[in-house]
Amino acid sequence: MSDVSGTANPPALEDLAQPAHWLAEQARQRPDAPAVITRDATLTYAALEARVAVWAAELAGRGVMPGEPVAAWLPLTIESVVIVHAVARAGAVLVPLNTRLTTDEIAWQIRHVGARFVIIAGEPAPVLPDGVAVVKAGARSDFSPASSLLPLPSSLQAIVFTSGTSGRPRGALLSFANHFWSAMASALRIGTLPGDRWLCPLPLYHVGGLAIVWRSCLYGTALVLATSSRVEDLAQDLRDQAATLVSLVPTQLQRLLDHDAEALHGVRLVLLGGAAATPELMARAQAAGVRVAPTYGLTETASQIATQRPEDALRKPGSVGKALPWSRIRVLAEDGTEAPIGTPGEIVIAGPTVFRGYWRDSAATAAALRDDALHTGDIGYVDAEGDLWVLQRRTDLIVSGGENVYPAEVEAVLAAHPAVSMACVVGLPDPEWGQRVAAAVVVRAGATLTETELIDFARSSLAGYKQPRRVRFLEALPMTASGKVLRRAVAELVLAGDA
C-alpha cells in the first residue's frame, strides 16, 4: 500500500490558546528577546506586540470588520510582519498581494476577494483600482489598542493566491489552525531550539514566508528577514545574523555554494523546497558540511507537509521523506485504489493542515477536497521504506526558480495577441532555474509575428518569472485523438528547435 502517515490525531482545537494570544504570550514570557531582525534593525517581542496592538486598533477604527478580507502589499520588511500580526489581531483575513505581479493582475485579485482596504507597507506601491481605501504604514492615528479583536483558532488567517489551471489564480483559504499544526509538526520533524534564528528569503505573499512568520512567533524564536534574494545579500545575512535555519529553493542553495559555502556553516539546517534536489546538489552540500532537509509542501497545506531527514537525504536524493506528524499521505491509482509500492499515482493528503477550500470557487474546491482529503494532482510514489518521491508538481505545472507557473495562465495572455491562433506553454529543463517557460505558437493565416514581438506583448500582462523565454512557431500543435494538446510532444519540438 502506498501510504505515508504521520502520528495520531491532534487534540481538540478548543484546547489551544487563542491565535491572537500567540504573540501577546511571547511578549509576556520573553519581552526582550528578538522577534524580528533585519540588517538595519531588531524588534523585540515586547516592541512587536506594542506596534501590532496599535495597528490592529487602527484597522478596527477605520471600519475593518471581523472576517473581512484585507489586501496587503508586503515587501520583506519589519513593518510587513507587524501588519501580518495586526490584521489577525483585528479579526480580519489577510490577502497578501504578490509584489511581482502586474497592475492588472493585482487589480483582479483585489476585486475577486472584494477587499475594501489595501495596506501598503512599502514602495514602490502598486496602482490600485478605484474604490479601494489605501492604508499606508506610518500613517496611523491615535486609536486605543484596547479595541482590537480576538480571532478563533478555526477562523481564517489568509487567502493566499495560487495559480489555477483555468488561467486565473485561486485564493486558498488558510486558517489559524492550519498554521498551528504546521508549526507543531515541523518542530517535531526538524527540531526547534530557544536560540534559533530562521532566515526568511521567501516573500510574504508565499505560504512559505507566512509559515515562517507564524512558526517563529509560536516558538518564541527570532525571524530574520533577508535583505534581498541576491546571493551576496543572503550570504551576508547568514553570517551577520547568525542564522541557524534557512528556507531555500535549490537554485538559491546552488548559488550560495558557488559564492560562499562557508556562510552556511553556522546553519544547523537548510529546509529545501520548491523543486527536487538533484544528487549533485546534495553531494555538494554534504561536501561543504551543510545539512539539508528536502521538503514537499503546497499552499493548500500551509506549506511543509513531508520532509526528509538530513541523514537520509544524501542516501536518497530526490525523496522528500515521510508525512509530518498528524498528517497522512497516500498515493492513489487512476481507479482510486492505493497504488502499489513504487508505482506512480496521485498524491492525496489528509490532516489538520489541509486548507478550507478556494475563495468563491466551489467547483475547484469540490474537485480538490474529496473524501476528507486534498487531491493534489501531483504525481509521485512511495518506496519500500515509506518515503515519498514527487515526480511532477501538478498537471503541467512549471516550477522556475521556486516560482509556480501554470501554462493556462500564460497561454491565455499569448492567445490574446491578434496574430495568435493557438498557443501551448511548457517547461523546459534549465540548469540554473530548474525549468524555464517556453511556448509553441500557431499564427493565424495571413498574419505575421516574431518571437520578440510576442514576448514584448506578454511582458505587460505577466510577471517576469511567467514570461516565455523561448517561442517556437509551428504550423499546428500536436494533438491526441480526442483533441487535447500533447504537451510532451510540444516540449520535444521546442527543444528540437533549440538544437
Give a short overview.
By secondary structure, the chain is an alpha/beta fold. The chain is built from 14 helices and 26 strands. The strands form five sheets. The protein has a 15-stranded mixed sheet that branches. A four-stranded parallel sheet has the order 5-4-6-7, sandwiched between helices.
Q: Could you describe the 3D structure shown?
A:
With 499 residues, the protein is α/β, with parallel strands linked by helices. The protein folds into 2 domains: 3-391, Rossmann fold; 398-498, GMP Synthetase, Chain A, domain 3, CATH 3.30.300.30. The protein has 14 helices and 26 strands. It has helices spanning 20-29, 45-61, 78-89, 103-113, 176-190, 207-219, 231-240, 250-260, 279-287, 310-313, 362-368, 407-415, 451-459, 487-498; strands at residues 3-5, 34-37, 42-44, 69-73, 93-97, 117-120, 133-136, 156-162, 170-175, 197-200, 222-225, 245-248, 269-272, 292-298, 303-307, 319-323, 328-332, 345-350, 369-370, 373-382, 388-392, 398-400, 403-405, 420-430, 434-443, 470-473. It has a 15-stranded mixed beta sheet that branches. A hairpin with a 3-residue loop joins strand 24 and strand 25. Helix 1 (20-29) packs antiparallel against helix 2, helix 5 crosses helix 6 (207-219) and helix 7 (231-240) packs across helix 8 (250-260). The chain starts with a strand and ends with a helix. The relative contact order is 0.10. Residues 141-149 have low confidence and may be disordered.
